[in-house]
Amino acid sequence: MLRRDYPESYLDALGYNHVGAPFFKVNKAACVRDLADVAAGMVKFGLPIKCLEAVVLAISISFKSTAGGEVFRHIVLGLRWNNLYGALGLSRRSDLMFKALRFVTLDELVAEFKRSYEKNGHQLLKVKLGAPITHDKESLEPVPWK
Q1: Residue 139 falls in the annotated catalytic set
Q2: Does the annotation count 31 as an active-site position?
Q3: What pLDDT digit, counting tens, does each position of 8-17 carry?
Q4: Residues 6+ apart with CB under 8 A from 68
Q5: Mean pLDDT across the stretch 110-125?
Q6: 44 and 103 in contact (C-beta within 8 Å)?
Q7: CA 121 – CA 130 distance, rounded (Å)
Q8: Is 51 a catalytic site residue?
Q9: Which of 7, 75, 89, 101 is the most buried (most CB within 10 A)?
Q10: Catalytic residue from among 60, 62, 74, 116
C-alpha cells in the first residue's frame, strides 16, 4: 500500500529549483503520454523542479496573486482520496505547497490556500481549476490545465 505522505516527501527530496531556468521542459500543449515521459525523466535524474513541473497528473489548481507591486503565478496538484481533498506542489513557502488530505470539499482546500497567501503578504487575484487528468499514461489527450 502506498503511504499517503510518500508523494510529499518525494517532492520535498527533489527540492525547489532556485536556479531560475527549469531543468525539464513542460510543454502545456503536450499530451499526457509526452508529459508522462517528462515525469519519468524527473524521476530518473532527481534534479530540483519548479511548481509547474510538479504538476503532471491529477487536477491542477493555479493561483495568481500580487505582493509588493509584482504579480506571481503558482500551480499545485489537487488530490482527492477517500472523499478528502489535499494538494501537492513545490514553493519557496512551505504553506503554499503541501496540504494534507483533510478537506471535505475543494472549496475548503482553496480557502486554506487563500489564508496561506494572505499570511505571506499576498493578495489572491484568481484561482483556476483544471479538469481531472486521465490516468492512462499512453493517452494522446491534452492535459486540461484550465
Answers
A1: no
A2: no
A3: 566 666 677 7
A4: 121
A5: 95
A6: no
A7: 26
A8: yes
A9: 89
A10: 74
